[in-house]
Amino acid sequence: MNDDLKALRDIISSSVDSITAACEAAGTPFPSLNDPIQPSEFTRHGIRSQPAVMRSISLIVSAATQLIATVRPPPATMIISAFRYTLPAALGVIEAGNVAEILRDAGPKVEVVQPPPATMIISAFRYTLPASLGVVEAGNVAEILRDAGPQGLHINEIASKSGMDTKKFSSKSGMDTKKLSRILRYLATEHWFREVSPDIFANNLLSSLLDSGKEINEGFDRRSKHENSKGMSAMAGYVTNSADECIKSGSYLVEMMTDPNTKFSEEPNCSALQKAFNMTDTFFEFLDRPTEEYRRKRFAIVMARTNRGNTPAAIVESFDWESIPDGGILVDVGGGLGHVALEIAKAHPKLHIVVEDRPLVMDQAKSFWEENLPSHVDENKVHFLGVDFFEEQPKLPGPVDVFLLRNVIHDWPDKYAIKILRHLRNAAGPNTKLLVIDNVLDHVCGTDQDATRPPSPLLPNLGGASLLSYSADVAVFCVLNAGERTIEGFKDILTPSGWKFHGVRKNPISPVFKPAVTAGPA
């Protein structure tokens, strides 16, 4: 593998050298990413029109894409892939709002090697990745290929076993061979799966994340295959979640942003989701419907398994838990199954835990703790409270040392986030700490307060390396009419709710993902 990394590096380096040499020979600079496209791009005199330059461009794009797929943590790649629909959704909003025309004459503007028209078309087609991943996840393709090993399996056999109703194996229950081969060939090009030889496919590093580890047999049910599954595979719910309500919502983002009834609204039931599903329920009301048990359980599993991509060290090291006295109380607000608090309790077993979420989730949460940390349940050191966090806090076992909110505040527009935080402030003591673990977005241009900046010409916010946070922002916006916040955005909701912003502690595992915002009573 080290040889592969070096080879990819060398391909990029030598190809860049070839392009710069061609530019010097032609006496023209390579077009900058920051400048508008020039008419010369579309003539035979354009630098990208030279066959040798185009070959170098193809090599750079291919090598860079493969290098990213190789070195980036697989869970991050899976989530980013699931969120790929957010780019065409956002581009649709920009086009509808005539933003490019408005900015045309705004003035000054890193070089981009891929022809801009190609980048535009590929960007518009990015929804095809989560859509295709949704198909292979629904067809259990990763499970089917598990036992085939590196030699792979022919598409005919894959398709025949990939029925949506796997309790009835027959030629009619499987997927169409030609259609599935089209999907797999595309995914292999995106470095999900391998095409070993014509029409023979095998799992690879990324596709193995989709494998539930369960056997495809007469009693197999894909709708529950990730329940009680171990390891990274349980995160595959991101794929089905994204290919379902998320991508459907994204396709209605333009309508939401241009409808006079919704475009200025801060209501959680005025998102693109409501237009996609033709309803007035919020996302969480939708999940609580009796008919939506599958989506409800899937969402809970996805939230619980995000720890696989955000390792326990990142959770445990986000705060000085040793400063909490023995028997101190941590309240995991909107904690789902309590997966974050569980990791903290494992590292600091003297803490008492309160898990708060919607009442329908609490039975599932108790089962989760009984399986993963039964000692805390047996010793009555964990409590499960079904709550509405828009109401005052219920009676708690004692004074609260820490209120923890992870992936909660970004689910709510400002006025609702303030209401949640104000209720917590009313239940807090003078020494209670507030810990919010959410993405903190940097301005793309950077600020004068930035302690360090990446080397030029990289974007100050690290661009593609921090794409996960910005994609999540748009994804949450599509479904909940909310999203991630900048530091200023956090101060805007902390101050009016009675909390004082203390600072941001970077994630010890990732410099760009899920830091901890800390606050105390004002």
TrEMBL record:
PROSITE patterns: SAM_OMT_II. GO terms for biological process: methylation. Keywords: Methyltransferase, S-adenosyl-L-methionine, Transferase. The keyword Ribonucleoprotein does not apply. Residues 272-444 form the O-methyltransferase C-terminal domain. The keyword Transferase applies. It holds the Pfam family Methyltransf_2. This is S-adenosyl-L-methionine-dependent methyltransferase. The lineage of its organism: Eukaryota, Fungi, Dikarya, Basidiomycota, Agaricomycotina.
